[in-house]
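Aim 2 progress update. The chain analyzed this quarter is reproduced below.
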Amino acid sequence: MTSSVPAIVVGGGISGLVCAYALRKLGVEAQVLEASQHAGGLIASERRDGFLLEMGPQSFSGTAALRSLCAELGIADQLVQAPAQAPRYVLIDNALKAVPLNPAAMLGSSLLSPRTKWRIARDAVGTSRAPLEDETVAAFVRRKFGEELLDRLVGPFVSGIYAGDPERLSLRSAFPQLHEAESSAGSVIRGMMRAAKSRKGPREKPTLLTFHDGNETLVRALAAKIGSSLRPGVEAIGIGVRREAGAVRFEVRIRESCSEQIIVAERLILATPADVAGTLLRDVNAAFEPVLAGIEYAPVAVVSLGYHRKDIGHSLEGFGFLAPRSSGLRVLGSVWNSSLFPGRAPAGHVLLTNFLGGATNPGAAALSDKDLADLVHREIAPVLRIHAAPAFSHVQIYPRALPQYNVGHGERLIALERLRGELPGLFFVGNYLRGPAIGSCVELGIATAGALTKQCGPG
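Predicted structure tokens:
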């Protein structure tokens, strides 16, 4: 059986949903094929025993595009903002130290030695030249600021965003603004200040947001707008191309309830993980597969622990803490959800969400749920002065959680764009392209819908 539709989006994560919604606004009806029964990808919220759990991202930055989308969807009034001054901590010598959030604060912080502070100050007045070749985050930080800053701040920060390894992560791909700052001004600090001054439009203060009923509120609102065009439980198993009178038509072979059929469209957006997209395109052009399969993913285990408040000696006033690899902990970090947002834990309780695994310790995600919960409790108990076992625990494991923007990532994306250019109507969206943050995925989904309609026309 064969049917025809204006556009197909393969993958119902946040990127695919936003792209389909944006296409609908532009007059293009897109069918969204989601292999699982749950749209939203890693974004999932669930209430258990009075705790509101985030299975994936715990919150998101309030970008202009994301705020505008929430307003359009009618859910802006459900947004909840974390305390703006909530301190963030790193674990140094078995003690939590507040993270300085700007260069001036760094110079006054006890977190860093005088030598590291001098190197930060030297960057503000000196000049350096970025190397021509792709540079790892670790090499960049060592070259500019030294080993201490890498261990105590940058390494934990990289773990928090990418679950990545700074020894492998590409500076140009993962933190392009830092590379551009040095390249344009010879100084990271001066370059960042210059970029901030030249930025057009109103300046928004960085905000950390979620929704009253969890991040999945955004997924549910998008799904409601897309309606019956969102098809959960429908798996794309292959893609072919038909060329007619110079036009390209994509034939997507799907499996639904053990039966197979083909859907044809002139517009195809792949919103799957990179390797899945490569496999689907194998018969279209075999060159896609090695390019997309070369993008690695890091595993992450999300361990949510609930405690009686009286059993914790620490005030828990703040965002949470990150653990440098030199601390010896296997926990990457801990987010104190109930300190940031209301309704995350029952009265008299707190909710702490902890992360393990990542590119630096992938084996942790292979442990059992019980072993993971026990390990986390054992490691955070001395740090937070916890005197009793958790009253609640939940473990969610993602074997392939976050794409790694490792050295060579930029070249892979250039190669991908070259291959894509040979197939008018084919587009990619996802967290492996312009950043893993929810806001980045939203911006890319909207921009891709605009580019697609500009190329192929509406309807």
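Residues 2-43+211-295+405-456 form a domain with the FAD/NAD(P)-binding domain fold (CATH 3.50.50.60). Residues 438-456 form the longest helix (19 residues). These observations will guide the mutagenesis experiments scheduled for the next reporting period.
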